[in-house]
From TrEMBL:
Its EC number is 1.1.1.1. This is alcohol dehydrogenase. GO terms for molecular function: alcohol dehydrogenase (NAD+) activity; zinc ion binding. Residues 14-345 form the Enoyl reductase (ER) domain. It comes from Acidisoma silvae. SUPFAM superfamilies: GroES-like (SSF50129), NAD(P)-binding Rossmann-fold domains (SSF51735). Pfam families: ADH_N, ADH_zinc_N. Keywords: Metal-binding, Oxidoreductase, Zinc.
Length: 347
C-alpha cells in the first residue's frame, strides 16, 4: 500500500519534506479482535506537527520510520475471527485509542487512561495510508448521511473539543459567559458544541480575520481579536467579572496567562492546547478559587454523542481536502496557518 511515512524528526519544522510518500507492507490481522480499515479520510492535526518536531519522544515509545495519522474514518476491509457486529464494507469512524477492554479504566469507559492500549498515529502506525489496523472496540458505525472523509477529524479534534465544551456546559447558565481562545480546527467545533449544549453567551478570541469569521458562522455571539487587549475586551463584555468558563485551544505563548486572567473568580479554565506552561501564585489560586481542568481527547460514548450532533446538523466541520501524496503540503499549510478549519488526507 501507499503511505506518507515519517523517517526523521525536524525540531525546527524547516524542511520541505516532513514525510515520504512510498510503498509499505499492508497491515495484517494480528489479534482476533483486529479490524483492517480502508482509509476514507485521515485528519491532519497540530499534534502531527508536534510529532514531527519530536515533542512526543519523551511520552511514547515509537521507532522511526512510522506512519502518523490519529484521526481516521473509512470502510471495514477485513475482520478478525472474534469480531462481531461489523462486516466488510461498513462505513465507520475510529475512536483514536485501541484498547483491550479489560483494565479498570476501560471498564469505567475511560479509554484515554487505559493501561493496555495503542494510539495509532502516535505510538503505532496510523492512517496516513491506504489501510489501517485498528480494533473492534474502537469502531462506531456512521449514520448514512455522514461520509468518512467529512468526519475523520472528529475523532480527535472534534472529540477533544466536545469533551471540553461538554464539561463547561454542565455548569454554564443563561446570562453567563464562556470564552473560547482559538477558533481554528478545534475551536470552531467547540463553539458549535457550546451553542448546542448550553445557553451561555459565547466569546471567541482569535488573532486572524479568518478565525473570527468562522467563529461567527459557528455561533459565537461576540468576536474579539487577539491584539494585546483581548483580556480588557473580555472583561468589558462581561461587566468586569470575566467569563465563568474559558476554553483554551491554544495553550502556548501568552494564551495561558491571558486565559487565566479572563476567567472569573470561581470560574473554570479548561486547557486543551499545549506547549506552554501554567503558572499562578498560590495566593491568587486561593483567593480567586479558579479551577484548572485538563482535557485529553474523549471517551467512546462522547464520540457517539458527537456523531449524533453531526448527523442532526448541529455541528459541522470546515475541511480542506488533500490527496495522501500531498501530505507534506497539508502539513506545511497547517504549520503556516493557511487552513480554515481542518485538513483531511484522502488516499
Amino acid at each position: 500500500m501507499k503511505a506518507a511515512v515519517l523517517h526523521r524528526y525536524d525540531e525546527t519544522l524547516s524542511s520541505d519534506t516532513f514525510v515520504h510518500y512510498e510503498d509499505v507492507p499492508d497491515p495484517r490481522i494480528e489479534k482476533p479482535t483486529d479490524v483492517i480499515l480502508r482509509v476514507g479520510g485521515a485528519g491532519v492535526c497540530r499534534t502531527d506537527l508536534h510529532i514531527v518536531e519530536g515533542i512526543w519522544r519523551s511520552k511514547v515509545d515509537v521507532q522511526l520510520p512510522y506512519i502518523m495519522g490519529h484521526e481516521n474514518a473509512g470502510w471495514v476491509e477485513e475482520v478478525g475471527p472474534a469480531v462481531e457486529g461489523f462486516a466488510v464494507g461498513d462505513a465507520v469512524i475510529c475512536h483514536p485509542l485501541v484498547t483491550s477492554g479489560h483494565c479498570l479504566a476501560c471498564r469505567r469507559g475511560d479509554d484515554m487512561h487505559a493501561t493496555d492500549s495503542q494510539f495509532p498515529g502516535v505510538n503505532a502506525n496510523g492512517g496516513y495510508a491506504d489501510y489501517l489496523r485498528t480494533g473492534q472496540r474502537s469502531l462506531i458505525k456512521l449514520p448514512a448521511g455522514l461520509a468518512p472523509k467529512d468526519v475523520a477529524p472528529y475523532t480527535d479534534a472534534g472529540l477533544t473539543a466536545y469533551r471540553a465544551a461538554k464539561k463547561a456546559s454542565r455548569h454554564l447558565l443563561p446570562g453567563q459567559f464562556v470564552t473560547v481562545i482559538g477558533a481554528g480546527g478545534l475551536g470552531h467545533i467547540g463553539i458549535q458544541v457550546l451553542a448546542a449544549l448550553c445557553a451561555a453567551e459565547i466569546i471567541a478570541v482569535d488573532r486572524s480575520d479568518t478565525g473570527l469569521a468562522l467563529a461567527k458562522e459557528c455561533g459565537a455571539h461576540h468576536q474579539i481579536r487577539a491584539d494585546g487587549e483581548e483580556v480588557e475586551n473580555v472583561m468589558a463584555l462581561t461587566g468586569g467579572r470575566g467569563a465563568e468558563a474559558v476554553i483554551d485551544f491554544v495553550g502556548e505563548g501568552e494564551a495561558v496567562a491571558k486565559g487565566l486572567a479572563m476567567t472569573a473568580n470561581a470560574g473554570f479554565y479548561y486547557i486543551v492546547g499545549y506547549g506552554g506552561r501554567i503558572e499562578m501564585p498560590t495566593l491568587d489560586m486561593i483567593t480567586s478559587e479558579k479551577t484548572i481542568v485538563g482535557n485529553l481527547v474523549g471517551t467512546y460514548p462522547e464520540l457517539v454523542e458527537l456523531m449524533a450532533l453531526a448527523d442532526r446538523g448541529l455541528v459541522h466541520l470546515a475541511t480542506r481536502e488533500y490527496r495522501l501524496k500531498d501530505a507534506n503540503q497539508a502539513l506545511h499549510d497547517l504549520h503556516h496557518g493557511r487552513i480554515r478549519g481542518r485538513a483531511v488526507l484522502i488516499p
